[in-house]
């Protein structure tokens, strides 16, 4: 909590008197926020649906300092985001509680993620018919090689890094999440680890038992919570509870509440989604990272004198190797001109980590999934499939390796396989050596933490891949200490151009069948009561476009991407 002197408090009240109509909030109001489903790391526009992590966190900060807000009513339903975002939201809940204001949670469907967040609140309520599924955490590995064999498809894959597909790695990640869950819930609820483990292992599904054993505050319906809030806040029972919802409160500017300075400006560049070199003709702007668009943002910030520092916010599992390298170069140039700090969200692995290496400092959440310094690349041989369906394709070529990337109707020849392996090894060496240089390690030291292994943020920090653990607030404090910034700075989101109506319409269908179910979603699901990490027999960071002109291969790629 920021402490304001009398003059700043006076200015805030004066600004509120002349606030814009949509910023007006009745004194004694309750901020009502519903957390549900996917939470994006990008800032949402006024016309976008869904939740945005930056706006959620900002609402907590504003509500803590806003004299018009008396409490927060947090309704938590099943969440499909990763543990990095969960950690950051939970930290903001705890910071809000330092304001002395009430925050209560209501959880109709309660899994491990939902309970983890809800128990950070001062009070936790569930309805009598709540679905409770706090049974533990699982990780699942699905393999599709048998399916491919049955349909005549032979994946020819080069994996550089022994951890690109490894049960040991997944077990360690699961253990990190499980241990963190036990420790956090134990300290919050004032119970021993043994009690927490017994609770999980007993298969609790009855809310009455949760109340009896002190896991929740009470069993009530939503309308009863509203009545209770009126009493707690001293409002009359016959009058309607004064509330402000998430979307409306998001329109209240930080400046109005004295939370934004007029001096030093810090640019925030967000990079979310899988990485590619260029956006397809049907791609909706905002879906994934394209090197051209991000490089344009970086150059704009580098050439501007108004930005004193840069926060590079990354939420990406990687993707195209060339695009990652081009962006890394621009980030390095940016870091040479002004301080750049990389902030990791749910995942910053492979190409996501590649980008972070260009920053001067890397900050991650304890459960961010990062690292994955390795290479996976390959192609499909459809020889048997073509024979089964009676399809024939003839290629006429000149040059020993001319058919390396286009001949999907046959396997690699021995010479082609050797060249392909050398190419993958060369890509790995470049990645590894740049990582070693950026982290001031020897190649041998980097090799021990590379090999394609994915680390949790905590383990990555202890091994030198990450500098500090924390979220946006910790990152700003770090910048303030290092660069002697004032406590209150101005953050400016460097956003891409708004999409035109034709682009929105054209991209709608693509967004429904988007190809972004990449490693991020595989790793992202490593959590919740339905936690999954699908390590399919073929997970590609870089799938060579060996199928141009072949609708059959294109269809297969689409199918594999959606598995």
UniProtKB/TrEMBL annotation:
A molecular function GO annotation: serine-type peptidase activity
Transmembrane feature ranges: none
Compartmental location: Membrane
GO CC terms of this entry: membrane
GO terms under biological process: signal peptide processing
Active site residues of this protein: 164, 350
Keywords for this protein: Hydrolase, Membrane, Protease, Serine protease, Signal
Domain Peptidase S49: 97-234, 334-478
UniProt signal peptide: 1-19
Cross-referenced Gene3D superfamilies: 2-enoyl-CoA Hydratase, Chain A, domain 1
Main localization of the protein described in the UniProt heading: membrane
Family indicated by similarity: Belongs to the peptidase S49 family.
Protein's name in the database: Peptidase S49 domain-containing protein
Natural source organism: Spirodela intermedia (Intermediate duckweed)
